[in-house]
Amino acid sequence: MGVALFVVSANHHDLTISDVERVAQHAQNLSDTLRDTVSITGHAVLSTCNRYELYLDSTREAAEAIREQLNGATTQGGVILREAAEAARHIYAVASGLDSMVVGEREIVSQMRTALSSAREAHTTTPLLEQVLQGALATSRKVALHTDFSAAGRSIVGAALDMANSSGCERAACDDAGRSPCDDVAIPRSNWANIRVLLVGTGAYAGATVAALKDRGATHISVWSKSGRGHQFAADHGVVYTPVLDLMSPAVVILCRGTGSPVITADALREVMPRRSPLTLIDLARSRDVETTARDVEGVRLIDLEVIRHHVPAACQGDIERAQQIIADGLADLDKQLVGRAMDPVIIAIRNHLGTMLERELEKFPAGGDVPAERSTRALQRFAATLAYQHSENARRAAEGGRAEEFHAAAELVFGISLPEPQPVKGSS
């Protein structure tokens, strides 16, 4: 595999969600650099609630410079650069859900498709990026078909809803071994028919959230959005639009705006909580839609991405191993395809050569009017004769140079036909 593929990655494995958000914000300043740097042939951006990644077709120096700039936005470093085979393996694992916060989640597939589609619209994709990303998406479909990840309903949204139905702790505090007091708490999949839910925002996770709620039997779902898209979202998803941010009626408020500033503050909660029953807040925004101090308000339980990261249930090991084998097979296919791409310059040169020869014949035709069939036939015969003459002369020169068998093998490979073996001429040595 070539060395032109790179991944610059800031994700939940190596950074806090807050640092991932800082990287994503800082990356907005790199658009001109990514577009104008000659050594960056193309790029695609994958931005989700727990990762920000740049897929680059570039030189190593350019990719390293981008990594260093993004690393400066974090409090602890942790932006990773992957190259060539390692980069492709990472992209395939991401698309298949194996690198997700909730291993096996399927939401990442649509996010990967969006990344590729956006790169196409911006004209920043390249043949290499197309081949790798399309291969990763194709492999993810095979993973979905041959594992039970989808049947298990594994997703960040699903994990958050299951946590809301449990009595586990609401903090992300863990001991030195990475465990928290609620690691062993069962997370039941309950019926939400009688639970009032308010969805705040119509961001990337909003549609998946509605689907997950309805899958659990929820019937009392309303949506509020400051963007003006709430009416249409409600109509499209069969929920109720509410014109105000209601903190009194719902038992659960799920937030997925991610616009950069909290929409629910601790002060607002302190004002309403004495007059209502306990409230569960699920914040799915990387940039936080709820102030973190909200978890200190009596009667409030806050489940955010950091909490989810520490308490998601493990995936079935058998499914993981099957997915890993499918990814390995997909990468092997990708290697073969990329090896074949090495012949692209040769193929282009041959096509150009043949095109030039054909243009010479076409120049002999009159500029306008019909061309008699007999004249067209003669032109095609001359074109064929010219091709045959060149190959014949090359064959004779190869034989004279002692390379008859080599030319024979090459000709069979090029033309895709079985050719007679070269015959020694009587009297020759």
TrEMBL record:
Subunit structure: Homodimer.
Site (Important for activity): 90
Miscellaneous field: During catalysis, the active site Cys acts as a nucleophile attacking the alpha-carbonyl group of tRNA-bound glutamate with the formation of a thioester intermediate between enzyme and glutamate, and the concomitant release of tRNA(Glu). The thioester intermediate is finally reduced by direct hydride transfer from NADPH, to form the product GSA.
Residues given in the record as substrate binding sites: 48-51, 100, 105-107, 111
Pathway assigned to this chain's UniProt record: Porphyrin-containing compound metabolism; protoporphyrin-IX biosynthesis; 5-aminolevulinate from L-glutamyl-tRNA(Glu): step 1/2
Protein's UniProt keywords contain Methyltransferase: no
GO biological process annotation, one example: protoporphyrinogen IX biosynthetic process from glutamate
Active site positions, chain numbering: 49 (nucleophile)
Keywords of the record: NADP, Oxidoreductase, Porphyrin biosynthesis
EC code: 1.2.1.70
Segments forming domain Glutamyl-tRNA reductase N-terminal: 8-147
Protein name according to UniProt: Glutamyl-tRNA reductase
Start and end residues of each Quinate/shikimate 5-dehydrogenase/glutamyl-tRNA reductase domain: 191-306
Catalysed reactions listed for this entry: (S)-4-amino-5-oxopentanoate + tRNA(Glu) + NADP(+) = L-glutamyl-tRNA(Glu) + NADPH + H(+)
Similarity section: Belongs to the glutamyl-tRNA reductase family.
Domain remark from Swiss-Prot or TrEMBL: Possesses an unusual extended V-shaped dimeric structure with each monomer consisting of three distinct domains arranged along a curved 'spinal' alpha-helix. The N-terminal catalytic domain specifically recognizes the glutamate moiety of the substrate. The second domain is the NADPH-binding domain, and the third C-terminal domain is responsible for dimerization.
HAMAP family: Glu_tRNA_reductase (MF_00087)
Pfam family, one: GlutR_N
